[in-house]
Amino acid sequence: MKRRILLGSAIALGMGLSAGVSMAETPPLEVKDTYRVGFAQMESNNPWRIAETKSFHDTAESCGWELIATDAAGSAAKQVADVDSMIAQGIDVLFLPPREEKPLLPAVMKAKAAGIPTFLVDRSVDEAVAQPGEHFVAFLGSDFIEQGERAADWLSANFSGDKGIIVELEGTTGSSPANDRKKGFDDKILQDDRFEIVASQTGDFARDMGRQVMETLLQAHPEVNVVYAHNDEMAIGAIQALELAGRKPGEDITIVSIDGTRDALQAIIDGKMGVTVESSPFFGPLACDVMKRYAAGEEIPGWVKVEDRVFTIDNAADHIDEAY
Ligand code: GYE
User: Cα torsion for 291, 59, 123, 272, to the nearest 10°?
Assistant: First the structure.
């Protein structure tokens, strides 16, 4: 654990905090057999979220967690309120996947003020305002910029046409994976001058919205021959819209995406999707490990990075049985 000496410690002492604990470090966690653990899920409208919540439930018993899990049903305001109620219920530690970067800042700040160490899982908050090692212990998750870059690399290497006209389906506006998957992909693909992004619009990481947005964008840009979706659910929705309009995904339009869901691996096997860059939802065991190391006083890096694989026709069939 980081022990930073800082200017504010004298003030902190003056405020009645015990010596040695300053406001610029995250609250300590006792070593004990059982913990009251909060997991404030943001929504449960896709297989990725359901697999993640299940991973926390599956880990609870072996890690000694009395788990309090909530579902904010797609509302950042409810997610903040869910964290408030967990604080009131006396959780020892909080695992939080912040739906959006800014609206969830108050939840992080309140948990810290209540003396509860917070681990951000799968998405981060605005790190210009809240920093790992100070406001929250660490961010556990993937490198979203790199995921976007890897999707772009695959497309550059595998696209055989002269001109790639891309429609991009963005994730939830203001969420860290939507911001970074866009940046990583756009910067990389535009270095290859065969490609142009003609439209980029949010589908909120949801299948149905991906389908609807694709339907509209296809009317405005019938010449599109590449779809880059920030997650598999939107990619599957886009495939449905394209097929309804008489297009042939995998033949006259290339689909690239991120996550590695069962439906996406099946779409790759069926020849409809080109690639999906993995973004694993199985955070339970990692959360247990990092929490225990933190309790033991180990220094935790501000970003505990999850390594991702890439799924294509070469390996999709090998991994579909373990997919969700
Ligand atoms: O890709 C998506 C989910 O935050 C990494 O959120 C996660 C993303 C994941 O809803 O499917």
Answer: 150
What is the pLDDT averaged over residues 113-126? 98
C-alpha of residue 19 to centroid of ligand 1, in Å: 41
**Residue 136 to residue 246: CA distance in whole angstroms:** 49
Residues with Cβ within 8 Å of 60's Cβ and at least 6 positions away in sequence, in order, are: 37, 66, 67, 284
Mean pLDDT of 280-292: 98
Nearest CA to ligand 1 atom 10: 205
**Residue-averaged pLDDT of the chain:** 94
The total of other beta-carbon atoms located within 10 Å of residue 301's CB is: 13
Q: Encode pLDDT of 241-264 as tens digits.
A: 999 999 999 999 999 999 999 999
For 105-114, which contacts have Cβ atoms below 8 Å and span 24 or more sequence positions? Answer: 105/129, 105/130, 106/80, 107/40, 107/79, 107/80, 107/83, 108/135, 108/136, 109/135, 110/83, 110/84, 111/83, 111/87, 111/136, 112/26, 112/27, 112/136, 114/87
Task: Give me the pLDDT at residue 20, please.
Answer: 47
So what's the pLDDT on residue 24? 81
Nearest CA to ligand 1 atom 7: 122
**If you measure from the C-alpha of residue 108 to the centroid of ligand 1, how many angstroms do you get, rounded to a whole number?**
20
